[in-house]
Amino acid sequence: MFRMPFEKKDRKEYFRKLDKIFDSNFWSEGEAVKELEKRFGDYVGMKALAVTNGGAALLGLLEYAGVRDKEVIIPTNTFMATPLAVERAGGRIVFCDVNREDLCMSAADLEKSITKNTKAVMAVHIGGHIAFDILRIKEICDANKIVLLEDCAHAHGAEFNGRMAGSFGLGGGYSFYATKTMTTGEGGMVVTGDEGLYEFMKKFRNYGKFDYKIKGFNFRMNEVTAALGLAQLERLPEILKWKRVLAKKYDTIFPNRVKFHEGMKSGYYKYIAFEKKLKIETGKVYGELCHELMGMKGDFPNAQYIKDNHVCPPIFHGWEHASLCAEELKKLLCEV
After folding, report:
1. Percentage of the chain with pLDDT > 90?
2. Is the N or C terminus of the chain more exposed, i.e. has fewer CB atoms within 10 Å?
């Protein structure tokens, strides 16, 4: 159950941007991509580079980190894009467990998973909020001289003490896939405060031009997609506000839920509660664990608990029942 937030007023703005693109005669490598990068970078407080999708963003991060033939630690409770990107970059996947409280990487289990061959850690911000252990994860990575990367596919609007997702490690990769809080259908963004990574990604997404020393490929975002991104980015504050109002109603209905630390704001890609069943719900964050999908062994009790016990009531922008009061929502959603 999902509805993309793109109404008539958004279409008018998008068509206006398209007219500008058609007049420019640049359908790729033009001003719309540059503008989206500048505005998204300003929004997250870092430099930003647009790419074809979130998977390409993760791949670029891992290639720059130099993970080939080295171990990369990731949570098993994530989308398959994360481990597949590690494989594509030539890294060796090491799965670790997560915390029940936030569904994100467990710093304690991470620490136990590190070996002399660990090159990088990719923390995944699940459901729209920043991993609760992110500061401890960063400390562990710094102490062991391990590169910290961030999968920000769900994290549009996520903040922790004023810092946005992607700002805690070397860089982060956002997805603009069709179901995301900010969507372009397909698309992604690499964000970073590191000048080396920024310059690397410029070439990596464009075949390595012009000296071809970097073995890149075509991961460029086109102008039409960027125009859609600009229209969506302008709507993002309104969409986040709408989601947070609905989430406050849900907080009174679901005492057993993900509860955020002080200083945290969620973008509510998902609202996550721990219930047996709902009468109406969107899909689970993840209904399968990556190590199982890849035929790998491991004991991850917290990830297994989350897989078996979490539910997600609808929180996509425009849900027709969102205006109901909390008591009415409870009757609509919950089993009697």
Report:
1. 93
2. C
Rounded to two decimals, what is the model's pTM? 0.96
Alpha helices of 94-222 — where are they, by DSSP H? 107-113, 134-143, 195-204
Domain range annotation of the chain:
8-230, 236-333
pLDDT at 2: 53
DSSP symbols for 287-319: SS-HHHHTT-----HHHHHHHHHEEB---STT-
Nearest residue to 176 via CA among 221, 216, 132, 131? 221
Contact between 104 and 125 under an 8 Å Cβ cutoff? The reply is yes
Omega before residue 2 within 30° of 0, cis: no
Please name which of 109, 136, 92 lies closest in space to residue 301, comparing C-alpha atoms. 109
Q: What is the mean pLDDT of the chain?
A: 95
79-121 pLDDT per residue, tens = 999 999 999 999 999 999 999 999 999 999 999 999 999 999 9
**236-333 classified as CATH 3.40.1390.10:** no
Whether residue 315 is predicted with pLDDT greater than 80 in this model: the reply is yes
How far out from the chain centre does Cα 330 lie? 29
Mean pLDDT for 39-55 is 98
**Whole-angstrom Cα distance, residue 69 to residue 300?**
24
What does the alpha-carbon distance between residue 217 and residue 289 come to, in Å, rounded to a whole number? 30
| Fold of domain 8-230 | Aspartate Aminotransferase; domain 2 (3.40.640)
